[in-house]
Design a protein that fits this description.
single chain; mainly beta; YerB-like fold; 2 domains; six-stranded antiparallel sheet; globular
């Protein structure tokens, strides 16, 4: 018999002897109901019920001793990326990412290079044209870019979101509403003048980022690459004084939401309320990732061998917006100072979350229902900002 069991037995005998010594037939109390507490680790809870003295004694399991976490062994010359938690070269450690306004009209497809991004945002770009969306990929290793895009114009919200990562925003112009944001101290942006590829499409669908100088063999024109543009603008390639710090908390071990969240539910298929693009996410159990679809087909990156756009983490944010004019230009009201609803999806499961952003250049804070900060699995993240007036059309199955 274990020492603990012997001790409990002896204590029970002592209590019984003391009770017998203090009680006779005349003063013996009636059989009042007592409280039985059953610890049931398999059900993950504590059940408390009223019962008579003839109920069985509570079963108390041995305490579970948690194994210490394994030491995180980082390969030589590598570090864990602050955007994905994946191991990447140490030379990238302090390098700022870029955020790229990417045209998401069907005519602009296929895209080039987007599957190399670490985080991809999708949000409504205009209330016109079926509330068409644009992508805003965020990429740490931009010096490896050969062709990325195509790129288009920005909106005010994009500047505030890019600032959360201290990213250099790359775009081609925008409505005059962005002028006050391009002038912000926290903003570094590069607008237009990038490589024009002869792809047989209209001019607005021909502009792509290259890191090096690009010479168009068809037109003979030469275009500066991203490296030269950043240097000429005088922007720091490394994080500057406006860097708000690491955006997410990651787990080095794979986590399942249902293991620690009672409000987790199945989430293998997502239909986003973006009527023009018909954006969807489908969980591929074989690879443990969500695959991005739009216009009724799986998304492919032609510049990366038709690689699919996949994500280990999915965040969906509810947010209201303000339409700025009759052309459909808008700004999301992401600075309301009170939490908005949202969802976090991982490994085919989802949990409700809340999010809040207190300043233009401050990080968005994501919280579980108990107000603790969310934890992401290692890998890429997709973030959708969904208009509050369409939130009811969001489908998660």
């Amino acid at each position: 018999m274990k020492k603990r069991s012997i001790t409990l037995l002896m204590l029970g005998m002592a209590v019984s002897i003391f009770a017998a010594a203090c009680t006779n037939e005349e003063t013996k109390p009636a059989q009042d109901p007592g409280t039985v507490v059953t610890l049931n680790p398999e059900e993950g809870g504590v059940n408390v019920s009223q019962a008579g003295n003839d109920e069985p004694e509570p079963v108390v399991d041995e305490p579970v001793v948690e194994e210490p976490e394994e030491e995180d062994i980082i390969p030589e010359g590598m570090y864990r990326s602050e955007l994905t938690n994946e191991f990447i070269p140490i030379e990238l450690k302090d390098q700022r990412p870029i955020a790229v306004m990417t045209d998401n009209e069907i005519t602009a497809l296929p895209h080039y290079g987007t599957s190399d991004a670490d985080i991809v945002y999708e949000m409504m770009n205009s209330t016109a044209n079926g509330r068409i969306t644009r992508l805003m990929p965020i990429m740490k290793d931009w010096k490896s870019i050969k062709q990325f895009g195509s790129i288009r114009s920005a909106r005010p919200t994009n500047f505030m979101v890019a600032a959360e990562y201290n990213a250099i925003l790359v775009h081609d112009g925008g409505p005059y509403y962005i002028n006050q944001y391009t002038a912000k101290d926290y903003t570094n942006n590069l607008s237009g003048g990038f490589a024009r590829f002869s792809n047989g499409k209209s001019t607005e669908y021909t502009e792509y980022i290259t890191y090096d100088t690009y010479n168009n063999p068809s037109t003979g024109k030469s275009f500066d690459g991203l490296g030269a543009r950043i240097q000429r603008a005088g922007y720091s390639e490394t994080y500057n004084q406006y860097y708000p710090g690491e955006h997410f908390t990651f787990s080095n071990k794979e986590i399942n939401l249902s293991d620690s969240h009672s409000d987790a539910f199945k989430a293998t298929d997502v239909s986003l309320p973006f009527p023009h693009n018909k954006s969807e996410l489908h969980y591929n159990e074989e690879i443990g990732k969500y695959e991005y679809y739009e216009y009724g087909s799986v998304y492919v990156d032609e510049g990366n061998g038709n690689k699919h756009l996949t994500f280990e983490n999915v965040i969906i944010q509810k947010c209201s917006f303000t339409q700025l004019d009759e052309h459909g230009y808008l700004i999301y009201n992401i600075l309301v100072g009170q939490p908005w609803d949202g969802y976090l999806l991982q490994n085919g499961e989802a949990v409700p979350i809340n999010w809040v952003k207190y300043g233009e250049a401050e990080r968005c804070v994501y919280m579980y229902s108990d107000s603790s900060h969310i934890v992401l699995n290692t890998g890429k993240t997709y973030i959708a900002i969904v208009p509050d007036d369409a939130w009811g059309d969001l489908k998660i199955d």
